[in-house]
Amino acid sequence: GAVVSQHPSWVICKSGTSVKIECRSLDFQATTMFWYRQFPKQSLMLMATSNEGSKATYEQGVEKDKFLINHASLTLSTLTVTSAHPEDSSFYICSARTGIGNQPQHFGDGTRLSIL
Amino acid sequence: RKEVEQDPGPFNVPEGATVAFNCTYSNSASQSFFWYRQDCRKEPKLLMSVYSSGNEDGRFTAQLNRASQYISLLIRDSKLSDSATYLCVVTLNTGGFKTIFGAGTRLFVKA
Questions:
Q1: A104 Cα to chain B: minimum distance (Å)
Q2: Given this model, what pLDDT does residue B38 score?
Q3: Which residues, 6+ apart, have CB-to-CB distance to B87 below 8 Å?
Q4: Which end of chain A is more exposed for a tag (fewer CB within 10 A), N or C?
Q5: Low-confidence ranges of chain B (pLDDT < 70)
Q6: Chains A, B: CB contacts under 8 A, how many?
């Protein structure tokens, strides 16, 4: 149980392109979803937290107009990296949690984004 | 002081060794505790939850000491496949739930 699917796994695109990443909870309803990014050999960095049907809460230093998050249903959240540039290249990982906040998060497979 | 601190790594151990990871947390309001493992270039995966009574899953044993604000993970009879980064994770409620990930400890198990 508690499977989270993230798509696509890899994206390589030109600078200036907008990239959309999907995160789906396959066998449970995710009341809260999280988006992280991780650079090589570094820790996970939380970008934003989203609850179904409400606006995402962004961490300090994360531009909400750059990283658009939509959590339209209890099983789907999307992250759109708008007008991506090489410095946005990173490993983006979503996670989902059901029920109350002290439950564990379950992670998607991650999306490796490379901007040329 | 970091909210969740882990042993600095990496740990290099031979196959069959027993290895222990330690983690401390600073906020006494912390409510739930987990160990995750993350393989290179992969997502974190939940290894086990941690309870005050201690819990065991095969070769893995997790312990929580709330008085000392200390969490541990013991791996017995290490396998090559145990090589990964182990993340200590704490959830606390300070008017809203917040999950904090430790920086992780890298483990290399060698033949």
A1: 7
A2: 96
A3: A44, B6, B35, B36, B37, B38, B44, B101, B102, B104
A4: N
A5: none
A6: 44
